[in-house]
Structure formats: structure tokens, C-alpha cells
Amino acid sequence: MRNYEIIHTEDTRGFHVVFSVTPEECHPRDCFDLTETELVDLCEKIDRGLYAWFDARVEVYQQGILLGSDFLGGCLYDTPMTFVKESEYYDDMIKNAIAEATHNLEKLYKSRNEVTA
């Protein structure tokens, strides 16, 4: 099981959003088309903490219940907060997680109505 560090939380569209990261397990050579010199330079910058190399996770909750999530691997940014503030991927992840949550809520509501009918 991978350990995630919570970086940011916010409330939007009736959901509590939790953004967290875990170190990327994949080597950068498997994600980028770089020369060997560029790859060595990139890896040194990651090792020195000049870049963050991580997997991103967005989870959405209502009343403390996880209803939807989205994941994105191979994220390379100055910091995880740079991903939150400047990346369109972050907004897309929230949209995807909320879409899943909405779908799950609709299924639960329909199921509940069938039981009580």
C-alpha cells in the first residue's frame, strides 16, 4: 500500500476535495523522451528537491464518505502546490472525481428508493 501526503484541501460544488501525493515509482526515463545527459540532469534535480516527481490523487467526500477519486502519475512540477495552482490537470481531476461521486450518489439514491418502494 502506498502512503499519500495530503497537500491541499478545499470545498467545491458541495464536496470536500482532498489532494494528496506519493512519490512516483516509475523512473523518469520511462516517461520522457530525453537524451542521456538531459535525463541525468533531470534526475539530479529531482534528487536535490528542485523538482517534485509524484503521483497525484484527488478524492471527493460528502459527510466524511469517500464518493469519488482520480489519479494521475508521472507528475513533474516545482512542488505539488504548483500542480494545484498552475496545472489544468488538477481541475480536470476534480471534475472527474466529482463526476464519479455524482454517479455513485445517483446509484445509491436509486437503490434506496427501490428498497423503500
What do these coordinates show?
It is a single chain. With 117 residues, the chain is α+β, with helices and mostly antiparallel strands. The chain has one domain. The protein is built from 3 helices and 4 strands; from the N terminus they run ββαββαα. It has helices spanning 36-47, 80-86, 88-116; strands at residues 5-12, 15-23, 52-62, 65-77. The protein has a 4-stranded antiparallel beta sheet. Strand 3 (52-62) and strand 4 (65-77) form a beta hairpin. Helix 2 crosses helix 3. The longest helix has 29 residues, at 88-116. The N and C termini lie far apart (41 Å). The mean pLDDT is 94.
Q: What class, by secondary structure content?
A: alpha+beta
Mass-distribution shape: elongated
State the total count of DSSP E strands.
4
Distance between the termini: 41 Å
> How much of the polypeptide forms β-strand, as a percent range?
35-45%
Write a brief structural summary.
The protein is built from three helices and four strands; from the N terminus they run ββαββαα. It has 117 residues and is α+β, with helices and mostly antiparallel strands.
